[in-house]
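Q: Sequence in, structure out?
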Amino acid sequence: MYGPLVLAGRFDPVSKDLSFVGYGPKRGEQSTVPDILADSSHPLSWVEPDPKHPLAFHTVGQPQSISMIPLNQVIHERYAVYWKVRTS
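A: Exactly. Output:
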């Protein structure tokens, strides 16, 4: 969250036919969301604002870089709004 905005982590784009066919995950096409390695009580240690784009953020010091934008701006992409946070 950033104020009242729900932030979504952006992942792979999906084709239009996969975006609007049925509900739920499709067999054989599931992706895993990477865990965040950080102290959950200090979010500024693993996420920072993108200086070039308002309301955009990205992870810092993670095995996989994740960009985050407001959920209502995600179109035709896989995304996540919840992550497991591990300390090690």
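Residues 15 and 21 are 11 Å apart (CA to CA).
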